[in-house]
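Lab intake sheet, docking and co-folding queue.

SAMPLE TYPE: protein with bound small molecule
LIGAND NAME: zinc ion
LIGAND FORMAT: SMILES
REQUESTED OUTPUT: full 3D complex as structure tokens
PRIORITY: normal
SUBMITTED BY: R.K., bench team

The fields below were copied directly from the construct record.
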Amino acid sequence: MDDWQPPLPAGYNDHNRAFLQAFMARGTLTLAEGKGIIAALQGVNPSDVTNQDFANAIKTAREAVEPLDYDIRNTRRQTGNGERIWAFINAHSDPTTALATIRSPDEVAYIKRLLDAMFETYNTPRMEVMAVGEAEALKVSRPPGNRESNAHTQRADNDEGGSQAAAIRALKHSEVLSLLSSLVAEGWLEKSQEGYYTLSPRSLLELWSWLVATYNDPDSEDEWQHIKFCESCKEIVTDGQRCSEATCTIRLHDVCEDGYWRTQQERKCPKCKTPWDGSHFVGERAITSRSGFQRGRAGRRRQSNVRGGEDEDGEEE
Ligand SMILES: [Zn+2]
Ligand SMILES: [Zn+2]
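RESULT FIELD (auto-filled):
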């Protein structure tokens, strides 16, 4: 549906308006949820609402919001059943406009540090975790400029600049934990069973351009980049499989792989031709599938075991 060019919405009515309001209030919709809203508005059973009815409702809503610079896009969940999700988004968002409109400047700054942790610190060529556990989320509670000896340089692309950075204060651990749980409740973050926080499908849709602009280098397209895309669906991979050749940049979602291999003659990386073993992971499994993690877990839970690779020695298989 990303291809069509919207004509002006014709016959826009109260049902269309109410559907859009319900959608905006939730931020995201699954097909079943969308049908439920349409059924309620029309006073029919959800089973009487067809996929085409839902597609029409989305199409009309999209036409209505487009002049306001908003959009409705859809993506599949990267994990589990791969369910498709529609999100109401501002495609020109950065973390301040998306996740942070009702946050304090200290919280906004924290969210940016959290994203840096996800996409830089814990996302290295060796370990593409792109997720943080609670311990890692707490580790960035303090801005780097808050200590007297500050070896870090402020990010050059931080539009707040250095003057405000000096005024940013650390969040207390209790504040970090409550911020994380509201970001989960609002659908910006997801928390896995193992306790790892990741960006939700909605955040990935909304922040797509910002993530690429912030964490990738447009001049080294062929090299390893922080943000990579699924060979099959072309969307961002924060949880999936990677080519077992360490320097190769090919990634695949678990939910995309069956369809993908059906279109290939052999189960080999399309770029470097290494046999695809399906056991090299992006996401929390980059940690949890490691033998060291499994051993440690047998004795005690080791959620604080997320390390981006900078101090992770001696456990490589
Ligand atoms: Zn995919
Ligand atoms: Zn490869």
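REVIEWER NOTE: The two ends are 43 Å apart (CA to CA).
SIGN-OFF: pending second check by T.M.
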